[in-house]
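Researcher: We plan to redesign the surface later, but first we want a full-length starting point. Tokens attached.
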């Protein structure tokens, strides 16, 4: 069965940046499974001595493309590597490759730095100049139907409400590009003053990049997609897929190891999470109204993808259900029994507790467990703890703020999804229960983050019972020793 959406993609050629990232490869998978496209050009850079073609062949074997390889293996042959780098001017794409891409009709620009602590200079080069250069390349595609820019729901977090339009940026993008002339030290020193009300360089540069897309919307058809916090997939192409440590993922991964039992996140705050496949469905469905909007002579189409108003799940719900799920599907890398989560409001208290209740005990317990061969010597707990700490400190802003966004376009797309073959399950995704989400998380963390096969679950459960007993003894033993020395000090030095 065909539809307006399928007809737009029929026989088309596509150019995508950031295609190897989590959202990028999800776009690629759905496009190759749902539409009959002619070719997909993917921007790749040489890495660790591997050419772009070698990297592309390796990329095709990613577990994420498993269903595609088994059902429509010929579709992966449509992927063609384009040598380039988002950090280079003009993306570093050769004239020959530009000529090969002359018939491109869709551009999906996903490439960006999503590092919240990225130095401003790097963030400008990647997120602002990279977007400008991708638009410049797209401007030369004579058959271009749509330029799709993946931004973030939090691009306007300096406001109380982000509407589905481009808001006035904090700085003109041309002025922002001129900052690249400053030396690194000077720009680092000026960063707090330059980004102003924005919590980090990521949201600041993504906001400015949107204004570039808006400026080009008078010349070419454009759309801006603002997904909220993207979490594990619901069912497409594989259930509970997760491959990164950002935001909700980073906090959940650390919690699943049992290393921490406290967080700075507000337990009563609603979660603004969206599934990976939900994001892809909505983005591709938005092509129809975005193309129509340009043909009507209107400005850039903007889509806010958000969980607000569509789920009642809170931070407390997440950790309560995750505890149950992790005990059913424990990881072999779990060092402690997963405890009840405590919620801390002060960042200073959180930092203090993190050092004394997480960092020091984990260092000691890790050595004990490794001595008895109950923990892998390859597991780096220091890096996992660091990810948890950074995720909490940075993620807390997004969870704790009163920032909201309108989502009329999202509501419309959910209602219209039933008209498009391959997209009818969209409504079901938003009806997903909190319990199911957390079971997915526990399984996804095991399978795709810790690379553990499901066949090891029975063994992991037995191991978890031992670990839980050891950690309980250790916890109370540690407290008793601490109390003993405190009382001893008091009796010797204070009372006397």
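Model: Full-length starting sequence:
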């Amino acid at each position: 069965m065909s539809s307006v959406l399928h007809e737009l993609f029929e026989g088309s050629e596509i150019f995508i940046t950031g295609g190897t990232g989590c959202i990028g490869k999800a776009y690629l998978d759905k496009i190759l499974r749902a539409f009959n496209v002619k070719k997909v050009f993917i921007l790749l850079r040489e890495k660790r001595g591997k050419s772009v073609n070698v990297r592309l062949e390796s990329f095709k074997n990613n577990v994420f493309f498993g269903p595609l390889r088994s059902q429509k293996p010929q579709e992966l042959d449509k992927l063609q590597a384009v040598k380039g780098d988002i950090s280079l001017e003009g993306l570093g794409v050769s004239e020959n490759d530009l000529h090969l891409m002359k018939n491109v009709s869709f551009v999906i620009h996903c490439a960006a730095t999503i590092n919240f602590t990225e130095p401003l200079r790097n963030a400008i080069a990647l997120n602002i100049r990279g977007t400008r250069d991708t638009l410049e390349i797209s401007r030369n595609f004579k058959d271009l139907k749509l330029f799709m820019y993946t931004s973030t729901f939090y691009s306007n977090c300096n406001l109380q409400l982000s509407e589905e339009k481009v808001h006035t940026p904090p700085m003109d993008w041309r002025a922002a590009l001129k900052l690249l002339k400053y030396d690194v030290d000077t720009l680092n020193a000026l960063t707090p003053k330059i980004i102003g009300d924005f919590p980090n360089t990521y949201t600041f540069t993504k906001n400015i990049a949107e204004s570039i897309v808006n400026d080009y919307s008078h010349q070419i058809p454009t759309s801006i997609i603002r997904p909220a916090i993207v979490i594990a997939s619901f069912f497409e192409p594989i259930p509970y897929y997760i491959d990164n440590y950002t935001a909700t993922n980073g906090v959940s991964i650390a919690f699943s190891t049992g290393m921490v039992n406290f967080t700075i996140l507000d337990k009563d705050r609603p979660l603004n999470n969206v599934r990976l496949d939900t994001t892809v469905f909505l983005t591709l469905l938005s092509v129809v109204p975005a193309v129509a909007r340009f043909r009507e002579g209107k400005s850039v189409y903007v889509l806010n993808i958000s969980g607000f108003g569509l789920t009642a799940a809170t931070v407390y719900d997440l950790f309560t259900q995750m505890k149950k799920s992790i005990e059913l599907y424990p990881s072999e890398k779990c060092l402690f029994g997963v405890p009840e989560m405590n919620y801390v409001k002060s960042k200073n208290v959180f930092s203090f507790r993190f050092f004394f209740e997480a960092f020091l005990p984990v260092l000691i317990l890790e050595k004990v467990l490794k001595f008895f061969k109950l923990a892998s010597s390859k597991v780096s707990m220091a890096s996992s703890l660091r990810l948890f700490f950074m995720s909490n400190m940075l993620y807390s802003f997004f969870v704790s703020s009163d920032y909201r966004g309108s989502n009329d376009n999202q509501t419309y797309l959910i209602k219209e999804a039933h008209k498009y073959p391959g997209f009818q399950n969209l409504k079901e995704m938003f009806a997903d229960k909190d319990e199911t989400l957390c079971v997915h998380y526990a399984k996804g963390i095991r399978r795709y983050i810790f690379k553990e096969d499901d066949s090891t679950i029975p063994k992991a459960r037995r191991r978890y019972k031992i670990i839980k007993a050891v950690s309980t003894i250790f916890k109370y033993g540690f407290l008793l020793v601490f109390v003993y020395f405190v009382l001893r000090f008091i009796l010797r030095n204070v009372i006397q």
